[in-house]
């Protein structure tokens, strides 16, 4: 059988825990989780910026933006 059984995975996990220790694995998990979280946040921010860049720019749109900014000032 060429696949991994549950025993292979269990033995591998025990060896990894013995080599690195639980505290290093815990810190590694936190670091990887933080990196994934930051990556997802940056992707959302980039998508928001791209949607603003993809809006059509017309003369009426520019005039409306100028009047809105002068009213807010």
Automatic annotation (TrEMBL):
Which UniProt keywords are listed? Cell membrane, Membrane, Protein transport, Translocation, Transmembrane, Transmembrane helix, Transport
Region of interest: Disordered = 45-73
Q: Does the keyword Cell membrane apply?
A: yes
Entry annotated with the keyword Transmembrane helix: yes
Task: Name the predominant localization.
Answer: membrane
* Transmembrane regions listed in the UniProt entry: 6-22
| InterPro entries given in the database record | TatA/B/E, TatA/E
Q: Which GO terms describe its biological process?
A: protein transport by the Tat complex
Q: Which GO terms describe its molecular function?
A: protein transmembrane transporter activity
Q: Which Pfam families match?
A: TatA_B_E (PF02416)
Q: How does it sit in the membrane?
A: Single-pass membrane protein
Q: Where does this one sit in the cell?
A: Cell membrane
Its Gene Ontology cellular component terms are: TAT protein transport complex
Q: Indicate the family of this protein.
A: Belongs to the TatA/E family.
Q: What does this protein do?
A: Part of the twin-arginine translocation (Tat) system that transports large folded proteins containing a characteristic twin-arginine motif in their signal peptide across membranes. TatA could form the protein-conducting channel of the Tat system.
According to the record's subunit comment, the protein's assembly and interactions are:
The Tat system comprises two distinct complexes: a TatABC complex, containing multiple copies of TatA, TatB and TatC subunits, and a separate TatA complex, containing only TatA subunits. Substrates initially bind to the TatABC complex, which probably triggers association of the separate TatA complex to form the active translocon.
Q: What is this protein called?
A: Sec-independent protein translocase protein TatA
This chain's source organism reads: Acinetobacter amyesii
């Amino acid at each position: 059988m060429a696949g991994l059984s549950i025993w292979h995975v269990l033995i591998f996990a025990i060896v990894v825990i013995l080599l690195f220790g639980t505290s290093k694995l815990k810190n590694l998990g936190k670091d990887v989780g933080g990196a994934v979280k930051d990556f997802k946040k940056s992707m959302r921010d980039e998508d928001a910026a791209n949607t603003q860049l993809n809006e059509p720019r017309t003369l009426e749109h520019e005039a409306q933006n100028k009047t809105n900014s002068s009213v807010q000032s």
